[in-house]
From TrEMBL:
Metal-binding found in the keyword field: yes
Name listed for the protein in its UniProt record: MYND-type domain-containing protein
InterPro entries found in the cross-reference section: Znf_MYND (IPR002893)
Keyword set, alphabetical order: Metal-binding, Zinc, Zinc-finger
Membrane-spanning segments: none
GO MF annotation list: zinc ion binding
SUPFAM superfamilies: HIT/MYND zinc finger-like (SSF144232)
MYND-type domain residues: 24-71
The organism of origin for this protein: Mycena rosella
Amino acid sequence: MEQSRPRRSKKAKVTARGGQDKVCVVCSAEQKNQSEKFRVCSGCKDKLGIRRYFCSRACQRTDWKTHRDVCGSMDFWDYPHTPLLDAPADFARSAALRSQIALIGASPEVLYTVAPTTDDALRLEIKDKMLNVSFRRVRDKAFTTCDPKSIAILAQTLVGAVEAQALDPDARVENVYKQLEDEYGFPGTDIAAVVAELEPGALERLHQEDMARHPSGFWKALARPID
């Protein structure tokens, strides 16, 4: 006697056929079964290979009011955030950190400035849009929570930039730790110790984890808290 095949759940069918769960980007409604027809942004699908789903025409129209300017463009990956000085923080920001945030507010393309009050200040920029997003997520978590791991990833990234550009990298590396100590209140030696525990390329590894978790919808990662 033949055994009947186990039935898969309806949600499993959606995932197996579509490659990902379908979630409306406006109201977060999930597709419950195949009879529910979700709409998709054709511009992002055709030009970027990204599927942005909508549960209804009304949600798609609502999204279009703001999405129309970046539909099908890599500008879609721009990281949305409120002005950092206005963002709530879990700690009292130092004057040095407030100054750093103000510099970023004045020049958003500069992700961080090392030795901002000197003539040879190093202004970090990351041209790769997606890696840029990953860095800003780490940086903004440090800005709002003073998270030691996020600060360590910042330090590792800034140290790498200093070592690549500075004529006297050893001295500048020490300055990086001292600057972060002034900004976040952690002793520079403690920051250096945490950085030493990180594997090389911590930012790139975090970025790859983002991409692996959301291969066809990295936009979801923008709203995901860093573990």
